[in-house]
């Protein structure tokens, strides 16, 4: 039920107990001897039109999570429902339809754009694959429309990716994603490689596009400051697990998990008179092949207790919509 007593609408995307392990191969025969536990039983949902920020240090499993949703990597276990469809069961044309409804924007727009294709061919490729245009004229008109939607011009169509700046290349990546009119876009660190001033422009563009087309975003970032203004809710990941998930305003104003507190303490505050105590976690992120038992953070957590090394803290709802996985709660 929602606040008005009506049944809450089903989320556009619902992920339950998602697991992704990658084999570690060694020796002459390249036998799988161990596994990297990249994503370790995570669950979350994203409502239509909202932005879920997914934040954590590199190697925490956030990009793998995004790729599992689109089946760019096959999940090991778990359930993914998108608009009521069982994503893991999709095959053939149903899987191709998923690629229309769910798109991805990558961190490095240069690496993800074919340097030998013109911008027009890159942006319009999916129009042909999915037979969304019937004539050359329609193709050209739609490509120009897409380029203008992201702040580029018709004259950019015949140029090549290397002729553009990082920010412009990311705009091309966004235009390419929009070509198939998706419902959800996985934004995989879309601004991490850009200068700070350009980052704001791309985030503003993504916000405008969300308003205009009713888009839903899973916005992946390694820095909490990047997702603060764009996110409706934020999920914080550490070593393959979601440790805290809350409405954005609540998470930034009153973080509960020691890991979120530490991440947030590293975010600069715009007000020079305000002070925030920096919380430093001891040591490095442990090896995900052999993550610490119990709470993965216990080897670095300033508030660790004996139980933390022995038992995995289950996620607990401490306030409506605010979930924390920590033995302190
Ligand atoms: Fe720290 Fe223990 Fe909470 Fe983990 S469960 S974050 S080690 S207090």
Description:
The chain is of the alpha/beta class. The chain is 29% helix and 24% strand. It has helices at residues 62-69, 92-101, 119-129, 136-149, 166-178, 196-213, 224-227, 248-253, 258-265, 306-310; strands spanning 13-26, 31-46, 51-55, 77-82, 85-86, 102-105, 184-188, 216-221, 233-238, 241-247, 316-319, 322-324. It has an 8-stranded mixed β-sheet with strand order 6-7-8-3-9-10-12-11, with helices on both faces. Helix 4 packs across helix 5 (166-178). The longest helix has 18 residues, at 196-213. The mean pLDDT is 91. Bound molecules: iron/sulfur cluster (SF4). Iron/sulfur cluster (SF4) is lined by residues 257-258, 295, 297-298, 301, 303-305, 308, 313, 326-328.
In summary, what is this structure?
With 329 residues, the chain is of the alpha/beta class. It has helices at 62-69, 92-101, 119-129, 136-149, 166-178, 196-213, 224-227, 248-253, 258-265, 306-310; strands spanning 13-26, 31-46, 51-55, 77-82, 85-86, 102-105, 184-188, 216-221, 233-238, 241-247, 316-319, 322-324. The structure holds iron/sulfur cluster.
Q: What attributes characterize this protein structure?
A:
eight-stranded mixed β-sheet, 24% strand, 10 helices, binds iron/sulfur cluster, alpha/beta, 329 residues, four-stranded antiparallel β-sheet
């Amino acid at each position: 039920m929602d606040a008005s007593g009506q049944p809450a609408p089903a989320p556009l995307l619902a992920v339950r107990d998602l697991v992704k392990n990658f084999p570690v191969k060694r020796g002459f025969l390249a036998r799988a001897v161990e596994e990297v536990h990249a994503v370790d039983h995570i669950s979350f949902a994203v409502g239509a039109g909202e932005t879920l920020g997914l934040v954590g240090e590199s190697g925490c499993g956030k990009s793998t999570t995004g790729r599992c949703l689109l089946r760019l990597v096959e999940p090991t276990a778990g359930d993914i429902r998108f608009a009521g469809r069982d994503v893991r069961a999709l095959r053939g044309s149903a899987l191709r339809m998923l690629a229309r409804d769910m798109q991805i924007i990558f961190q490095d727009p240069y690496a993800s754009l074919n340097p030998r294709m013109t911008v027009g061919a890159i942006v319009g490729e999916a129009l042909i694959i999915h037979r969304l245009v019937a004539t050359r004229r329609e193709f050209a008109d739609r490509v120009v429309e897409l380029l203008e939607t992201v702040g580029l011009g018709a004259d950019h169509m015949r140029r090549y990716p290397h002729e553009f700046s990082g920010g412009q290349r990311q705009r091309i990546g966004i235009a390419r994603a929009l070509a198939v009119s998706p419902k959800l876009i996985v934004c995989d660190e879309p601004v991490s490689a850009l200068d700070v001033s350009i980052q704001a422009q791309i985030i503003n563009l993504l916000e405008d596009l969300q308003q205009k087309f009713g888009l839903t975003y899973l916005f992946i970032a390694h820095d909490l400051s990047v997702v603060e203004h764009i996110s409706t809710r934020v999920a914080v990941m550490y070593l393959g697990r979601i440790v805290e998930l809350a409405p954005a305003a609540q998470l930034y104003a009153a973080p509960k998990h020691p890991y979120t507190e530490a991440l947030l303490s590293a975010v600069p505050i715009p007000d020079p008179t305000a002070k925030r105590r920096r919380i430093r976690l001891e040591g490095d992120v442990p090896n995900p092949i052999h993550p610490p038992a119990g709470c993965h953070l216990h080897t670095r957590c300033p508030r660790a207790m004996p139980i933390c090394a022995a038992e995995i803290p289950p996620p607990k709802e401490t306030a409506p919509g605010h979930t924390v996985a920590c033995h302190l709660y």
